[in-house]
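dumping the sequnces here before i forget
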Amino acid sequence: MQKVNNKWIKLGVEILLLAALFTLVQYLITAGLLKQYYQISLASMCINVILAVSLSLINGFTGQLSLGHAGFMAVGAYIAAIMTNMLDLPFIIGILAACLGAGLAGFIIGVPTLRLKGDYLAIATLAFGEIIRVVLQNIDYVNGPAGIMGISKLSTWPWLYGGAIITIVVIVNLVNSSYGRAIISIREDEIASELMGINTTKYKVLAFVVGAAFAGLAGALYAHYFYIIKPETFNFLKSFDILVMVVLGGLGSTTGAIIAAVFVTALTAALQSFPAIRMVLYALILIIMMIYRPQGLMGNKELSMKTFGRIWGGRN
Amino acid sequence: MLEFTQQIVNGLSLGAIYALIALGYTMVYGIIKLINFAHGDIMMVGALVGYFSLTLLGTNIFVAMVAAMLTCALFGVLIEKIAYRPLRNATRIAALITAIGVSLFLEYFTIFLFGPAQKVFPQSAFPVKAYDLGGLSILNKDVFVFASAVILMIILQYIIKWTKTGKAMRAVSLDREAAVLMGISVDKTISITFAIGSALAAAAGVMLGVYYNTVNPLMGIIPGLKAFVAAVLGGIGIIPGAMVGGFVMGLLETMVSGYGNSLYRDAVAFGVLIFILLIKPSGIFGEDTGEKV
Amino acid sequence: MDEINLMEISKLDKSFGGLSAVRDFNFRIDENELVGLIGPNGAGKTTVFNLITGVYKPDNGCVVFKGENLVGLAPYTICAKGVARTFQNIRLFNDLSVLDNVKIATHKNVPYGLMSAIFRTPGFFRGEDEIETEALRYLEIFNLENKKDELVKNLPYGEQRRIEIVRALATRPLLLILDEPAAGMNPQETQALMELIRYIRHEFNLTILLIEHDMSLVMGVCERLYVLDYGQIIAEGTPAEIRSNKRVIEAYLGEDVE
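..and the predicted 3d for all of it:
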């Protein structure tokens, strides 16, 4: 009984903290106390959290190195922009269509490529991501390389924050279930997993599709925050950006991915005027992390209130 | 028909460049099972060294090429020592991520040093002439690229087939542990492999400078990826495969630009890659091997 | 008692790059039997297991399990039909806890849907409780319940071997295939393990197929033995028959007897 009570108390506190953060930022924005620079940073943080958490499902939990995440983001961004800007549909329809479209793209790409292993898979997903970009460049309906301009700014704080929270909740709940254990077992030993009765192909595709769908969500939010989308925005360097966050946070840690996404976004914002230095730093982070701490900041552990309790309480 | 032959002529020199880069990919993969993502960027470094040798030191193109090859050989060895060696027993994913890191580092550190702008390869270093051969127009730079690439490949074949170093390289890639037991220094052999592969890439970089007349810090990405596709096409780890793959990619690319939509030029390379990976991941010359349980 | 055939393998062939690993392999096992497959190292025993469980596809022949041919089915389908196995070179999910290792094997019977997991419905919590109870029950049998939260990679070899069996058991098999379960164990541990195998066979109504290359171990526990040499069955019978079989002594024990 005690255990059950604790669970609900924990959930209550979590919801309260999240709501407090939401209200605080919302108040600062409406009261005009938050500078443009910080508003943009917060929006980018939400979008990057969605991207990092969704990629961490594929790279971290399933152990399938995907380098094409920006491609799914592009699919979502374009679909959402077409829906709202060209077809005058409501934002929510645009978002749902973006998730569905990106998820479908994930399915189409995932089914054939997920048979491949390790570095072959990485290269194939990179190639598919680039193909999405090149195809977008060649579609006149979306203005080819020039992209879509003048997208209405519909991504307000509630949408951005809500999107990030929904992504985290869905992926955390998925990972902490029998389905999640099946997914993680693929990372640990694919052959053993298959022989223990797990349809590894199905679960790899599932993780890939869910990850892609949320990348689509991130794309939709991005398009409606930054007004402009161009195919070039979603090249493989963008995929590497997301990879940096996942690797830095720890392959197999959602909280790690969130912390890293926030940190990397802040770093990016701070180094806005020095893009070359920013990329050199990213590069060094990747190399040094892999050599000295390949498990990332968090390894495959999660940061929880229990961890805080331990730190504060001084108990081991 | 004449136009078709012309396209083939154009494709051969580009193919030779891809083949040279692909050789480095394949040699490194053969010996440490790593896709050296930074390989295209080493090529870029080579092109830059060639550029500076031509403009600042005023050397001729051959000296520039040798300088680029030597510098990049050193670079390759250093990169392997610093970034890849500590990870030799790590997971494949960790090694691949490191290689991506090295690639980004080379690209953006170069931008940091020299700026992102394109540099024009001095025309005077290689005055372009066109020869007419029964209707076919053949440029001297195409001949230069093709001939030097072929000479380098012959030298490489000689090294691998007939020298002690080459034998050591083949031994290490077949079975590293057995090679150690036979008294081969694995570290040294891997270093030499990186040196040779990087030198070939540097030569390709200078050639690419001559071919396109420009160099820039991000020039290694796309040719690097295409050369990688070439290596996979031929069967990664297999040296003749990389050569054949390189020429196929070069020809395919000129055909698509010549007859189709040049905007799709890059997509074709990726399409080919995906096609091979799905149909026969071991490439044209590769043998399928299953996982041991 | 009427014996009901559970698995019948006929004319199984497999070669790797021209090298014949298993040739004309014929085999049957009845319900509730405990059969051993023995043979010197490199005789092709593990290959047979890989052929049965779908890791490799045979070049020829069929594996009929409960009247259905398993050849060509994916390993997870074969597992779902009731064939589970362990691995000679332990293949546990190293970075996960003991309990999670076992829970993963129960996944094919997962009692709740994906949406239920994402929305955390009451059915999800009930289902998770069921899974946990079941996993703990298996761990208790093998005296591992106090290790449930430890990471598998931190446990000693003998315990890892036992977890392999627990994990296979958690898939609720009809036929349990054990690949050298006693490898690396000392005689006492081996003895305890053999008793445990007898126990679970009885408790879960299992049919067990066992590989060992150490013949003395299987003599005591198995009812029937097959002897494999160079990919072919060279003898079949009760332990007593095998012990006195001339061909077996020549092919298998020859080196020791001499």
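Strands of chain C lie at 5-16, 19-30, 34-38, 60-65, 68-69, 83-85, 175-179, 207-212, 224-229, 232-237.
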